[in-house]
Design goal:
159 residues, mainly alpha, 6 helices
Length: 159
């Protein structure tokens, strides 16, 4: 369910980005006028899409794999390598989430705003980074549980 929500958030962000850019192109072409927000909003939405799409990629097994190494391992060795990789991934995602929490707190504490026409409070786009990373931690944890079960099942087959 979490990955489905993230997927639709990404789709909505892409749709909003397309509309904002299309309106800006149309107003520049037809009226020689620009709202001067498409670059800023596009950047924020691109960052949000980047982070919020991570759990979707994890759930769909869309990240790169080292097939050369994996192909030479036994099924149990492959399963164990997946568990090790999941543990390392979870550790690094947790570390990233912790740093993003600190970053978000400093945005709140110092009341950071973008030095642009919109003067966007920077906690807003940064919260998408934190939410995406937290969702990735949950997705990696789910994958880890599945991979641990696979190792246990393969261990029982050999006994």
């Amino acid at each position: 369910m979490l990955e489905i929500i993230c997927k639709y958030v990404c789709l909505a962000a892409i749709a909003v980005m397309l509309v904002v850019i299309a309106v800006d192109v149309a107003t520049r072409s037809l009226f020689n006028f620009s709202f001067e927000i498409s670059d800023e909003l596009g950047g924020y939405l691109l960052a949000a899409i980047t982070f919020v799409s991570l759990p979707v990629c994890q759930a769909n097994d869309s990240f790169h794999h080292v097939e050369l190494v994996q192909a030479r391992l036994s099924p149990r060795g492959r399963a164990v390598s997946h568990v090790v990789f999941d543990l390392l991934s979870l550790m690094f995602c947790g570390l990233l989430a912790w740093q993003l929490v600190r970053f978000e707190m400093s945005s709140w504490r110092f009341d950071d705003h973008a030095p642009t026409y919109l003067a966007t409070p920077l906690w807003l786009p940064r919260s998408a980074m934190l939410a995406g990373t937290a969702a990735l931690c949950v997705s990696v944890l789910r994958t880890l549980v599945v991979d641990i079960r696979r190792v246990c099942d393969l261990g029982q087959e050999t006994v």
